[in-house]
Amino acid sequence: MPRTLTDAAKVIAAIAVVAIHATSGAELHYAAHQEIASWDFVAVALNQWARFSVPLFLYLSGYGLAKSSASIRLAGYLQFLRQRVPGILVPYLFFASLALLPEFYGFLRQGKGELTAFLAIAWRKFYTGTADYHLYFLVILLQCYLLFPLWQELSRHATFYRFIVWLSLLLVTALLYRGSSEFLLAQMGLRHPGWHAAFAIYWLPYFMLGIAHAHQPPQNRHGILFALAVFLGFILVLWDYVRSAAENLPPDYYNHFSRPAVVFYTLSTIYWLHTFRNFSARWLDGVSQYARFTFTVYLIHPTLLRGWLAIFPQAHSLVMWLLTTATAFATSYALTLLVQKLAARQATTKVANQLARLFGLR
Q1: Nearest CA-CA partner of 45 in 325, 235, 299, 261
Q2: Over residues 189-194, mean pLDDT
Q3: How far apart are CA 181 and CA 119, in angstroms?
Q4: Distance (Å, rounded) from C-alpha 95 to C-alpha 299?
Q5: Given this model, what pLDDT does residue 180 score?
Q6: Rounded mean pLDDT, 286-303
Q7: DSSP symbol at 290
Q8: Averaged pLDDT score across all residues of the chain
Q9: What is the pLDDT of residues 249-280, one digit of tens each?
């Protein structure tokens, strides 16, 4: 895939992630009333359309790393970690600490003796990625980066590696379908982890698939066929949601990324993107230039969403999505300009570098 296409895909995926979080209220409202002819159902459709976003981000991360990194031995591995890990770990610690500040203040008001209890809670939230609802993805990225050299080496054995990738994806789908209360896990007396940053269970196959495709020679695929598969995948995902809501299943099931419908939808999207090997257009170049803001958009959009909800508590989820998306990209752009101005002055270069790292600016 050309770089402009992968960058544009990141932008669309970032917008989709905002849609998932902004429309969660409408989802619950629809589940309670189940009115098809309503704006809530439109928001549900948007939410389910966006289900490809997080798996696609993992896929593009693996794909981009494999394209830009050579085979990594031990010495190269340590250098790789020094170069890559701080760019994720620093903003993660910063935003997780910000999210924990209100809780820290609450414990302080209860007395100094409660500090130990707060530290225990904070530690668990740090390593599980649950300080804020979107931070689990950064823990996933960190863990994927730690394992990247292993997959990069294994990908030299293309046939064996592809077998591992597809086996992992099948196991994830089979073991986690409808959660731990049903199907294979329950029959084996096992339960999957209750926190989303357990990447080896939920997310790793997409990252591995990205590495596999980075080393795979270009192949001719029929774009119309895969476009139809994407459309069918979306219909299946939406129908899965509607059916599950009608059965009063918990949202953790019918929103989950391990659903077979979501897996099919995501894979169709990935393979459809690969049909655009030689595609170029002015609009694609225009969209791709915003890819450098996507990581920052991901980091700051929950805070902006909460702010808009506080100002317009009665506004519909679709309005919240549009407002949050626009302000997240605008804020990322403004922060980039600020960092560039600070970097241009010798006295504030270090400040600029620290700001860029804290907010994940590229």
Answers
A1: 235
A2: 64
A3: 32
A4: 8
A5: 44
A6: 93
A7: G
A8: 85
A9: 766 666 677 788 899 999 999 999 988 877 66
pLDDT tens column, 60-113:
999 999 888 766 665 678 888 888 889 999 999 999 999 998 877 777 666 656
Nearest CA among 2, 19, 88 for reference residue 53: 19
In the chain, alpha helices (H): 3-22, 24-33, 39-49, 53-68, 74-84, 86-110, 115-128, 136-154, 158-176, 183-187, 199-202, 204-214, 223-246, 251-254, 260-273, 282-288, 294-311, 317-344, 349-358
Q: What backbone torsions phi and psi does residue 224 show, to the nearest 5 degrees?
A: -65, -40
Rounded-to-integer distance, Cα 324 and Cα 302, Å: 8
Rounded distance, CA 267 to CA 211, Å? 14
Contacts for 287 with CB less than 8 Å, ≥ 6 apart = 7, 8, 11, 12
Render pLDDT for 4-60 as a digit per residue (tens, 0 to 9): 889 999 999 999 999 999 998 888 888 878 888 889 999 999 999 999 999 999 999
Instruction: Report yes or no on whether pTM surpasses 0.70.
Output: yes
Angle at 231 between CA 229 and CA 233, to 5 degrees: 65
71: left (phi over 0), alpha (psi -120 to 50) or beta: beta
Residue 178's pLDDT is what?
56
**Cα–Cα distance between 251 and 111 in angstroms, integer?**
37
DSSP structural state of residue 292: G
User: Nearest Cα to 54, choosing from 261, 258, 300, 231?
Assistant: 258
Those residues with Cβ within 8 angstroms of residue 84's Cβ, 6 or more apart along the chain or in another chain = 145
Return d(Cα 291, Cα 308) in angstroms, integer. Answer: 24
Chain length of the chain: 362
- The CA distance from 253 to 244, in Å, is 8
Interatomic CA distance for residues 309 and 298, integer angstroms = 18
Concatenating the DSSP letter of every residue in 176-216 gives HTT-TTSHHHHHTT----SSTT-HHHHTHHHHHHHHHHHTS
